[in-house]
Amino acid sequence: MKIGLLALQGNVEKHSQILLQLNFEPILVRYREQLEQVSGLVIPGGESTTMSKLLDTTGLRQPIQTFAQQYPILGICAGLILLGNALHSDADINTFGLIDVNVTRNAYGRQLDSFVNDVVVNLKDKQETIPATFIRAPRISDIGPDVELLASYNHEAVAVRQGRHIGLTFHPELDDVTLFHQLAFGT
Question: Measuring CA to CA, which residue among 121, 113, 117 is closest to residue 132?
Fold first, then answer.
């Protein structure tokens, strides 16, 4: 199966390695036609304002919105910000509103405040402790009633799922954690 990696800005190489490890074929998505080749999409971490602007200048925003009606999207850090609800505090970011969460950008601090800590992932059939790397991480402040909590850190949501879409505040690709790519796209 081919899985797209939004390759406008942000870290795609580590996600590509995870997808290859899971026997998926990664496709770097820079143009709308490339969405027709894939059965899922990773929106990686990066700078959310820049990513939002690039979605508009490349004409990818509406095709991704349409794609999301049929296929899963895994949003990491900035990807989660884009998947969540509109940010009232930042008019420069247009979000997709695919996961009913409110997110605060860079809520865990600056680059120097980045850290790695264990988080517990709760799935229906198992519980798993994984390392989680937080880099200028967003904070999920509100969760809608149809959003499933997958993991928390210090009693705050850090991984959520709504329907086929998953959003994370941390970077599993930096710790070679494949769990969320598996959850999003199957194995």
Answer: 117
User: Residue 97: left (phi > 0), alpha (psi -120 to 50), or beta?
Assistant: left
- Surface-to-core class of residue 79, CB atoms within 10 Å of its CB (0-12 exposed, 13-18 middle, 19+ buried): buried
* List of domains in the chain: 2-185 (3.40.50.880)
The per-residue pLDDT for range 123-166, each reduced to its tens digit, is: 888 889 999 998 888 889 899 999 999 999 988 999 999 999 99
Catalytic residues, by residue number, are 77, 171, 173
Q: Which H or E element spans position 54?
A: helix 48-57
**62 DSSP 8-state letter:** H
Rounded distance between C-alpha atoms, residue 132 and residue 88, angstroms: 28
Length of the chain: 187
Residues 91-104 have pLDDT tens digits of 678 899 999 998 88
